[in-house]
Amino acid sequence: MTTLTQLTEDMKTAMKARDKATLTTVRMLKSAIQNEQIKVGHDLDEAEELTVISREMKQRKDSLAEFKAANRDDLVQQLSGEIEVVSKYMPKQMSNEEIKAVVATTINEVGATDKSDFGKVMGALMPKVKGKADGKVVNETVKALLD
To answer: What CA–CA distance (Å, rounded) separates 66 from 72?
Structure first.
């Protein structure tokens, strides 16, 4: 079952349950995927759908940090609910130890020795962890291991 099909089913379920918060978030996700399909001109495969959902998750997390800094508790609560719904469509996230292991393996594979090889490592690493790890955490781990 594709993510788009799952979103449609979850949207129907949320409508029947009169769960407005979930319904709104699912509609936003479905809309984002459909807009991406229109933009690229073909049905999205799983990786492309994951990219769209990851982008939506990142936007919500960034907004959450900004709202917390501005003491907007009403918006923080709403976004926390949205993040919870979006996370249902994300793959299981890697732990810090798993990220560190993948980073170390990739550093060895590309033969990186210092910070000047950062781009080479990130280029080889990101396809391996796409959607499964936060890019900021991966970035920090690579920098720490290249020191």
So the answer is: 9
